[in-house]
Design a protein that fits this description.
The structure is a single chain. By secondary structure, the protein is mainly alpha-helical. 48% of the residues lie in helices and 6% in strands. It has a domain of 79 residues. The N and C termini lie far apart (59 Å).
Length: 142
């Protein structure tokens, strides 16, 4: 059986797929892969996209939920008093910004765990500094 993991180009210049028989992905450096938000190339990209969408949906509810609730049930949101504030004021003025801040921390924590899972390190640059000065002549040496 031939290797059907890669797309091949025939003589007419059209791209042929593997016919859906691939059972595993080719090893891909996720930094060099083409990014398609609807069909991510690597497992890291798929997991990261899930994290992004989950965080985005939670943010949408946290930020727009109180405003929508005030439009849908104005009597309830206005008449309910919590900590001396009307419920819509408390949720919109304090709850929504605090929720966004908490979601930022949750995203950072989950992204760090994702980086650990896939062995991605964000350390110092491994490049070495040289004693030469930067070229200021546009790259042309006289």
């Amino acid at each position: 059986m031939t290797d059907n993991r890669a797309r091949t180009t025939n003589d007419s210049g059209t791209v042929e797929t593997d016919g859906g028989v691939t059972t595993e992905q080719n090893p891909t450096n996720y930094l060099d892969a083409e990014v398609n938000i609807f069909r991510p190339e690597t497992a890291f990209m798929r997991d990261h996209l899930k994290l992004i969408w989950a965080t985005f949906l939670a943010w949408t509810v946290a930020v727009f939920g109180p405003v929508t609730a005030a439009l849908v049930a104005p009597d309830l949101m206005t008449e309910t008093i919590v900590l001396g504030f009307q419920l819509h004021v408390l949720l919109t003025g304090i709850g929504a910004p605090f929720g966004a801040l908490v979601l930022s921390a949750v995203y950072a924590y989950r992204r760090d765990k994702l980086d650990e899972k896939y062995g991605i390190e964000h350390g110092q640059s491994t490049g070495t500094a040289t004693d030469s000065t930067a070229a200021t002549d546009g790259g042309e040496n006289a």
